[in-house]
Amino acid sequence: MPYLSKIASPTLLIDEKICRENLKRMSEKAKKHRMKLIPHFKTGQSKEIGKWARDYGVQEITVSSVKMANYFSGDSWDNIHIAFPFNPLEANALDQLASNSRISVQLVNAEVTEILCNRLKNEVGFFIEIDAGYGRTGVEVSDFGKIEAILRKAKESSTLVFKGFYIHAGHTYYEKDISKIYEETRLALNMLKNKYRTEYPDLVTRLGDTPGCSTMDDFGDIDEMGPGNFVFYDLTQERIGSCQKKDIAVALAAPVVDIKKDKRTILVHAGGVHLAKDVLIESDGSKNFGEIVFLTENGWNIPESRSFVKSISQEHGIIQASDELLEKTKVGDLLGILPVHSCMTADCMKSYLSLDGQWIDHAEGVNS
C-alpha cells in the first residue's frame, strides 16, 4: 500500500535511504580520521534507526537522559552515554540501569560526583564535560581546581570510573567561523589529554556537535565524535552549511485545508504541536518555520521555487506560497514540510512513517 494512502493527519515521514546515506557518510568520516563514531540518539530516539546505525559499525550510543537510556538498554549496546550534566536526583535510577547495562555519564562538579560515590553499587563510567567557549554548561577548560576536585572525589569510589573529557561546541550553530571554534576545541582537548594521560593512560577525548563533525576535516588527536542531528539533518543545518536540502531525511506531511490565492497563502494542519516553534529568519526579516516539498509515491521533491511556513499557532500553519505551489496545490492535498529543527519535530510527532508504509518507533511514542 502506498504510504500516502495512510495519511489523514500530520505525519512525520522518514526516508530510510537518505538516513542511511547520512549514517554511512559520517561513519566513513570517523574511520578516515581514526575516530570512533558514538552518535547521539536524541535526534531519532528510535530502536529501528539504531539497527540501521549498527550496519555502519556503530556499537556505542549517546542519549540525553536516564529515561532514554532505559529505552535503549535492552538492545545490547557496548555502552550508553548520558550526555547531560548528571541530575543527582536520578542516582538510584542510574544505579539500577547500570546493573544490567554499561553506562557512562557527564559530571561538571564535585557535589554530584560525591553523591554518586555514595549511591552507586554498580560500575558507571564518567566524562568530565568541558566548556571551551560555548557557555551553556561544563567546567571551564582552565579550571583545573574543579577538574581535579571531581577526579579526587571519584577516586574514593570503586564504582565511578573516569573515561575522559567531552566537549559539545554548541556555538558552531550560531558563530560563522566553525574552523576557529574547532581549533579551540582541538587545543583544549589536546591540552587536557597531555596533562592527565600519565595518571589516566586510557582516557579518551570526545566532541559532540553536528556542524563541526559535518564540515571540519582536521580533528587533531581527538578520539571520538558524537554528533546527533546528522542522521536527519534539517534546515538549520542546511543554512549553517552542514548539509544540503537533499540530505534532510524527514518531512512532515501536512494536509491542506484552505487556499487564499489573493493573499498567496495556503493553510495546512501543521502547527507548533507538530513542527515545534524553532524558526529561521529570512533576509527580509520574515519568519520561516519550515520549507515546502512536493510529496511523491517515492518520497518528496524539492520545488524549483521556494515556499515556506511563515507563521504557526498550535495547530495551524500558514504557507507563503510561490506561483508554482499555488498552481499545483488544491484543498485536500498533502504537502511536505522540511523542519527547521528535526530533533524537536520528531519529539513532537513521536513516530515515523517510512516510505514503504511502515510505522517506525520513537522513544516518546508507540507504534501506530
Primary descriptors:
368 residues, ten-stranded mixed β-sheet, 2 domains, alpha/beta, TIM Barrel, Lyase, Ornithine Decarboxylase, Chain A, domain 1, single chain, 21 strands, 30% helix
Name the CATH class of the largest domain: Alpha Beta
The average pLDDT score comes to 94
Largest sheet: 10 strands, mixed
The name of the CATH architecture of the largest domain is Alpha-Beta Barrel
Helix and strand composition category: alpha/beta
User: Which segments are poorly predicted (pLDDT under 50) over 5 or more consecutive residues?
Assistant: none
Total helices: the number is: 12
The CATH superfamily of the largest domain bears the name: Alanine racemase
Instruction: Briefly note the CATH topology name of the largest domain.
Output: TIM Barrel
**What oligomeric arrangement do these chains adopt?**
single chain
| Shape, per Cα inertia axes | elongated
Q: What is the domain total for the residues? A: 2
**Helix proportion of residues, in percent?**
25-40%
Q: How far apart lie the N and C ends?
A: 16 Å
Gyration radius from CA atoms, angstroms: 22 Å
Strand content: 25-35%
Number of strands: 21
Description:
α5 runs parallel beside α6. Strands 1, 11, 12, 15, 16, 17, 18, 19, 20 and 21 form a 10-stranded mixed beta sheet that branches. The mean pLDDT is 94. With 368 residues, the protein is an alpha/beta fold. It folds into 2 domains: 3-12 and 244-360, Beta Barrel (Lyase, Ornithine Decarboxylase, Chain A, domain 1); 33-231, Alanine racemase (TIM Barrel, Alpha-Beta Barrel), CATH 3.20.20.10. It contains 12 helices and 21 strands. The chain has helices spanning 16-32, 47-54, 66-72, 91-98, 110-119, 144-154, 178-196, 210-215, 235-240, 272-275, 323-328, 342-349; strands at residues 11-14, 36-37, 60-63, 79-85, 103-107, 124-131, 139-140, 160-167, 204-207, 224-225, 250-260, 265-269, 280-281, 287-288, 290-296, 299-301, 308-312, 316-320, 334-339, 352-354, 359-360. It is an enzyme of class 5 (isomerase). InterPro entries: Ala_racemase_N, D-amino_acid_metab_enzyme, D-ser_dehydrat-like_dom, D-ser_dehydrat-like_sf, PLP-binding_barrel. One of its GO terms (molecular function) is alanine racemase activity. Keywords: Isomerase, Lyase. Residues 249-356 form the D-serine dehydratase-like domain.
